[in-house]
Structure formats: C-alpha cells, structure tokens
C-alpha cells in the first residue's frame, strides 16, 4: 500500500509540474503593475477565464491530491 501511494504521489507531483509549466506567464502583468503607469492596475482584479481558469483549477486539485497523499504516507509510515 505504501509503495502504491508513493508511486501515485510521484506521478501527481510530475503532473503538477506539467500543469504549472503550461500556465500562461504573468510576467508582463507584474512589470506593468510595478512600472510608473500601471499603479492603478495594481489592485484591479480580473477573474481568470478560459484556459487560464481551467489550468488554475487543475493545479489546485492536483495540489490537494498531492497533499492528501502525503498525509496518507505519513500515517502509514508511523503505523
């Protein structure tokens, strides 16, 4: 059981890395917020839509699964 959970955790970890790498870069947004003309946009909130929203949700779900698997592995290793 421990080996199965450990393998699942490694696979989910790799999927998290892939999901994070597939997300669009927000570097330009950060640069414009810190430059002189983008100060008003610093606190503007925009809801993620389309591909960005899907990737954020996938990343969050994978992170939750990875965390739960980690807790299960800690429990199994202590008993």
TrEMBL record:
Subcellular location: Cell membrane
InterPro entries linked to this entry: SecG (IPR004692)
Membrane topology summary: Multi-pass membrane protein
Record keywords: Cell membrane, Membrane, Protein transport, Translocation, Transmembrane, Transmembrane helix, Transport
UniProt GO molecular function: protein-transporting ATPase activity
GO cellular component terms, A-Z: plasma membrane
Protein's GO biological process: intracellular protein transmembrane transport; protein secretion; protein transport by the Sec complex
NCBIfam families: secG (TIGR00810)
PANTHER family per UniProt: PROTEIN-EXPORT MEMBRANE PROTEIN SECG
Name the UniProt record assigns to this protein: Protein-export membrane protein SecG
Organism: Weissella jogaejeotgali
